[in-house]
Each structure stands twice: as C-alpha cells, then as structure tokens.
Amino acid sequence: MTLSTTESGQNPASTGERPRVLSGMRPTGKLHLGNYMGALYNWVKLQHEYECYFFLADYHALTTDYADTSKIKENRSDVLLDFLAGGLDPKLCTIFAQSAVPAHFELHVLLSNITPLSWLERVPSYKDQQEQLREKDLATYGFLGYPLLQSADILLYKPKYVPVGQDQAAHVEITREIARRFNHIYGAREDQALGSAHSDKEKLAEELSSPASIILPEPDVLLTPSPKLPGLDGRKMSKSYGNTILLSEEEPVLRQKLKGMVTDPARVRRTDPGNPEVCPVFDLHKVFSSEEVKAEASEGCRTAGIGCIQCKGWLADAVVRELVPIQERRRYFEANPDEVASILQAGNARANERANQTLQEVRVAMGVD
Ligand code: SF4
Q1: Ligand 1 within 6 A of 47 CB?
Q2: Less Cβ around it within 10 Å: N or C end of the chain?
Q3: How confident is the model at residue 264 (pLDDT cuts 50, 70, 90)?
Q4: Does ligand 1 lie within 6 Å of residue 285's CB atom?
C-alpha cells in the first residue's frame, strides 16, 4: 500500500474544479469514537466530492495548554496517524500542520487590527470554557483571540464550505463577519492598487458592494451528521471526562470498557425490563449496529429477554468490526514513519502555496505588501 502524492507532487484532488472544503482538529491525543463520528468519518466522505484541506490545529492546542506543551508533538503524530488510519487519503485531500504554514499567524495578526474586541468577547465558548477549565488561567490574549486564529485558518484557503455539526454552526459566523468587514474596508483598495482611482464616495460605495471587491469570500457552513455519542459514563464522549473508547483501542480493552458502561438506571436486576431509549449503550448501538441487532437488542431489553452483558457484547462486536480496518491501517502507517512524514511534507507544501496566495492578496489590499 502506498499513499503518497503523484510523481509531480501535485495533489490530484486540487486539479479539478470541485468546491473547496477546509476543516481542522486540535491535536489533544489519540482520537476516540466521538472524534471519529463527529468529524473524521464525514471528512473521509467529503474527500471524494470536494477539494479538501484538513489540518492539525497544533497552535490551537497552545491556547488552553500553554503551561504544559510536552505532549503537543506526540499528540500531533497520534492524530496524524489516526487521520490516515481513519481513511483520509493524501491522493484525495491535502493534510497539513497549522504550525508549518506561517501565513496562518501573519493573517491572524493582520486581521486582529480590524476585529472589534467585543466580537471576540461575545463568542459563547469564551466564557463557557473559562468556566469549565477553571484550573487553567485562560485570561490570555491567545485564548480570547482563538476564534480569530480560527478565522485566519479558514479564510486563507477561501473554502466554499466549512463542515460542522449543528451545534458548531455559530462558530463559523464570526469568520463570515470578519471576512465581510475586511472586504468592506479594503475591498476597493485592491482596485486602487491596480490603478483605478476612486475618489468619488458613491463610486467607492458601489465598488465595496460589488463582487469584484471580495478578497476574502465568506465560507458557508456545510452541516454534517454528528450523531449523539455518549461516553462510558453516559456523558458526551470526551477526553476531558476520561470516558472514551479510542480508535486504536485493543479489542480486549475495548470489550472490558464497554462491559462497564452505564445502562438504563431503572434496570437493576436481570429480570427487570429496560428502556433502550434512555440507555447510552443503545445510543451506541444506533450508530454502530445493524438493523437486526438493534431490533433484537431493543426487544430483548424491553422484555428482559436479554441481559445487559449480552447486549454490550453485541455492541462490542459491532464496534470491533468498525475498527478492524482502521487499526490495520494504523499499524501500517506506524511501521512506515518515512511515508507518513512525506505525506505531511507534501501537504504542508501545498497548503503553503495556497495560503501564501491569499496572504499576498491581503497584504496588497491592506497596503502592506
Ligand atoms: S439491555 Fe442493552 S439497552 Fe437495555 S439497559 Fe441493558 S445495555 Fe441498555
């Protein structure tokens, strides 16, 4: 199996006229089923339909974990392996590391000059996360400016779409607002730089609203399915809750973990009938099991025809089936670090090329080229 780029180094995915898509993931460690179903699973499908750029948002990891950066490199390698194991194919998409594309940071600084502070302060996750992560001092510019760095990440690639689940659609809105503001302030200046004089106010207003003035196009949200995926304790599956099942989880560990998963609390004894609709185990069945197994588990639960251990065993079978090809690919890439490094290198080069084009247009528009 060889998953490198073509001999010319050109990504076949970027040669067509397909709409561009961009998304990234903060490398916080090995990916779990929640990360997979919430993002990576969709990305793997999107790479067949769109010109896709997917990145490791390693600088974003600094915004909350600046005090201890010892794990960032290892986490980045793990997430890259999981990207490839999960099915991202460098022949179909561009995979890169944010830290390898300096244009992200320059655009962040340039955009910081036009971004009202209040826009950043009102981002809902700013206050929420500060509340949730009280043990960390997040009264930093890096944390406040995180949505702006995210906007720079997106706008550099001029994507048509940013794939997100329903609950994150609002996160793309600030990017759209920043793009709109940028275009309104500098949109006409690009034409001036090209030689047209616009001293007349009315003409300038006309220019600002014309499509030709758009330097940073506003991306649209591409809503992707993001099924409810509870962790072992019934709360949302999340590394910070310690309730995850990793994509790279070995089968015996996975089975053991699922055995201990919480169930319908009303089903205390084996003889008590249960309600699958309130059971987190059944939520996972909905995602991973076949229609037959789901029907059998539901009926068996309601009639006390099966015990929870048997039900969890069926679930484990389905999850293991899903993970076998992923883990096979991971083993392959773990054994071929040079190939992984060259995939990232080629992706970084393509990302730099694309990002630098936009950055140059921005510099010209702002008069700082
Ligand atoms: S039988 Fe299955 S669905 Fe019903 S409570 Fe037990 S684990 Fe949950």
Answers
A1: no
A2: N
A3: very high
A4: no
